[in-house]
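thoughts on both lines:
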Amino acid sequence: MPERNHHDTSTCPRSGTRVRPLPIKGVLRLRPYGDIWHKPAFSVVIATAIPCLVLLALGRLDLAVYASAGALCALYCHGLPYAARARTLPWLVAGMLTGTGAALVTASLTDSTFIRVAVAAVIAAVHRMLCDATRVGPPGNVVLTFVAASCAFMPQPLTGIPGHLAVGVAGGVLALAVCLAPALVRPHGPERVAVARALEAAALLRSGAREEGHARAAARHDTAAAVNAAWHTLLLLRPRTAAGFRSRAVLERLVEHAEAALAGDRADRSEAERLRAWARALRRGGPPPEVEPDPGILTTPRLPARQGPHGVRALMSALRPGSPLLPIGARVAVGCALAGWGSMAAGVGHPYWAVVTAASIFQANTSLSWQRALQRVLGSVAGLVLFTAVLPVSRISPLTLIAAILVCQFLTEAAMTRNYWVGNVFLTPMALLMTEFAVQRPLTVLVTDRWLDTCVGAGLGILSCFLVPNRWAGGRIGIALRRVAAAEAAALDLDTEDSGEAARVRRELAVALVQLREAVDVASGEWWQRALPEQEVALAEREGHRLLADLAARLPRVRAA
């Protein structure tokens, strides 16, 4: 979800468009560590270490790049329940290897750097649209594009490609096994974490830590978003036993209680502490809080309906004419192509680094992309200093090279949750060290090329944000407003005392309000955009939250154990 930024804007009186200055406030601010940062960190280290050590023993460390194409998929899906993870990761591995295969074929068929950059840019755009359509989550399209863009500049005979992709498949199978292994210890861990996040957000709201103005509205939005994410996670559960249905029922009722916390206008510290206690119980893996018995829960779960297309339909929807993701895809394609061609024109030896840099900076809007570009450049500077110190040690032996890459991988995942620029301090040496699997180059060449490609990629990537404006961003607000109006009408027409129906209507309204706020945040960060209907949005949100409070009275309550 986009970060919220509030900045002054100037408005053109004739056209009604707004010109927003590009912000730098908060670019370097450090956040707390993410609650599950260690899961992708350990997973990717294990999934990468095993094939690298096997290939080292076989004397084929040159194949480590292809193994990493599958192994890096271990970074994904750690927020999904294990059954959903088992369904999603194979598709992700297939997508990774499809892009990698297309890049390898291109590298084999042509020596033209111009064409290779163009293909890498198109692959980057497709990766971005499909990742956005499926909401695959962090690290999104960047890792997929990094592998594919690298392979686009690795010429080889066509006959060698199937074997290299087979190595990638083996790495993907290992990544799947590593990501599913924790289910043997805590089979319900992901859904419990999702519900705990909703309870913690509701506790912060009820504690009165943020009382007034934008901060209060932000706390409400964050709570609604966490609740919505929890419902989405529970929707992915497909229990087949009575025990599974009862376990899901407990979590459903806890999320309902987090929803009810949105109705409070005053601080209630005792309620906040109870919510935190429930969240702690869920995170520790112990028995969850008891729930009022509900005999009908086995046949009438309180889950909301799916919002929008999903699965294959979501993928096809991303590519259809008129899709809101097409402007983003066009922006990525243009930015990556300009970056790669600019690097080529400057005589830099690694144009794909510029392509990956451009792909990594594109965020939900121009303002956030500008901030990400600054973070990428600043983090890369520090990362090159670290790389200069690490490279001599990594060249002592292949084993020290593998160890250096694994340490950088772990530190990247740990630091990325604090701020993107801190993550890049370790991501930069890791990416450079991985090139050592294929061929060793002088330190000065690597550092110079990386620095130039980073600057070229970031600069031309931002330029493409202005060359390819996202006019659809403003239109999304109108669509979101209509959805909120429809949900509010359904809430006003509700005349039943059935708590399950009240919960369903309330969730539809809560989802619509979350989507409206996200649409406003995206549009408000575009540099050149039509004036936003701020008053209409404020009225819709105020009325929507009032109705949420009214409906909360019909929701059941959870009693403490």
User: Anything to note?
Assistant: Confidence is low (pLDDT under 50) at residues 1-17, 293-301, 557-561. Strands lie at 10-11, 17-19, 528-530. The first helix runs from residue 38 to 58. The two ends are 34 Å apart (CA to CA).
